[in-house]
UniProtKB/TrEMBL annotation:
Residues 77-165 form the IspG C-terminal domain. PANTHER family: 4-HYDROXY-3-METHYLBUT-2-EN-1-YL DIPHOSPHATE SYNTHASE, 4-HYDROXY-3-METHYLBUT-2-EN-1-YL DIPHOSPHATE SYNTHASE (FERREDOXIN), CHLOROPLASTIC. Its cofactor is [4Fe-4S] cluster. The keyword ATP-binding does not apply. GO terms for biological process: isopentenyl diphosphate biosynthetic process, methylerythritol 4-phosphate pathway; terpenoid biosynthetic process. Keywords: 4Fe-4S, Iron, Iron-sulfur, Isoprene biosynthesis, Metal-binding, Oxidoreductase. This is 1-hydroxy-2-methyl-2-(E)-butenyl 4-diphosphate synthase. One of its GO terms (molecular function) is 4 iron, 4 sulfur cluster binding. It comes from the Bacteria. Residues 2-62 form the IspG TIM-barrel domain. It comes from Candidatus Riesia pediculischaeffi PTSU. The lineage of its organism: Bacteria, Pseudomonadati, Pseudomonadota, Gammaproteobacteria, Enterobacterales.
Length: 187
C-alpha cells in the first residue's frame, strides 16, 4: 500500500523489495507476489530479492520475476506439464536436468516439456523447443529451425540440450556479440 501511495505522489525512481521474505521457496513466492503485483501496476524502477539463501538464487528469482512479467527476457524458460498417468517419460527429472544444464544460457528461449501427446503439440506451440512424450521415443521439436525428430526417452535431456546449444552456436556465428540483444523476444 505504501508503494502505491508513494508512486502517486512522486516521480522519483522507486526501489522494490520484500525485506525478511524467508528462505528459497517461501521467499521466492513472497517476492514474486509482492514485487510482481507492483510491477504489473507500473510501479517500480529497480528491484531487490532478499532470501535467506545464496545471493545467486536472489538474482535468479529476480530475473524469473522479470521474465514472467515479460519485462525482460533473458535465459531459458522451461514450461512443463504437471504430469499425470499419461506421461511417457520422467518429466520432473528432465525439467530438473535441463534447468541445471542450461542455466548458463542467456538467450531468451522457451522450452516445453510435455509428458504425452494428448495436449503436447498444442502446449508446445509457442515454444522454441519442445519434447512431447510417446511410448519409447518422444518427439523433439526445434521450432527455431522448423525441425522435429524422434528421440529415445532415456536421452531426452541430452538431445534437447544439444539442439539448444547448436542453435545458440549458429546465432553467435551469424551475429557475433550482438546476438543476445537481437534474439527473439516473447510477444
Amino acid at each position: 500500500m505504501a508503494y502505491r501511495l508513494l508512486s502517486s505522489r512522486t516521480d522519483q525512481p522507486i526501489h522494490l523489495g520484500i525485506t525478511e521474505s524467508g528462505g528459497r521457496r517461501n521467499g521466492s513466492i513472497r517476492s514474486a507476489i509482492g514485487i510482481g503485483s507492483l510491477l504489473l501496476d507500473g510501479i517500480g524502477d529497480t528491484l531487490r530479492v532478499s532470501l535467506a539463501d545464496d545471493p545467486v538464487e536472489e538474482v535468479k528469482v529476480a530475473l524469473s520475476i522479470l521474465n514472467s512479467l515479460k519485462i525482460r527476457s533473458v535465459g531459458v524458460q522451461i514450461v512443463a506439464c504437471p504430469t499425470c498417468s499419461r506421461k511417457e517419460f520422467d518429466v520432473i527429472n528432465v525439467v530438473k536436468v535441463l534447468e541445471e544444464r542450461l542455466s548458463d544460457v542467456k538467450d531468451p528461449l522457451k522450452i516445453s516439456v510435455i509428458g504425452c501427446v494428448v495436449n503436447g503439440f498444442g502446449e508446445a506451440e509457442n515454444s522454441d523447443f519442445g519434447v512431447i512424450g510417446r511410448r519409447t521415443r518422444s518427439v523433439l521439436l526445434n521450432r527455431v529451425e522448423n525441425k522435429k525428430k524422434f528421440v529415445h526417452n532415456d536421452i531426452i535431456s541430452e538431445e534437447l540440450e544439444d539442439e539448444v546449444r547448436k542453435v545458440i552456436e549458429i546465432r553467435e556465428r551469424k551475429c557475433g556479440s550482438n546476438c543476445q540483444s537481437n534474439s527473439k523476444q516473447e510477444s
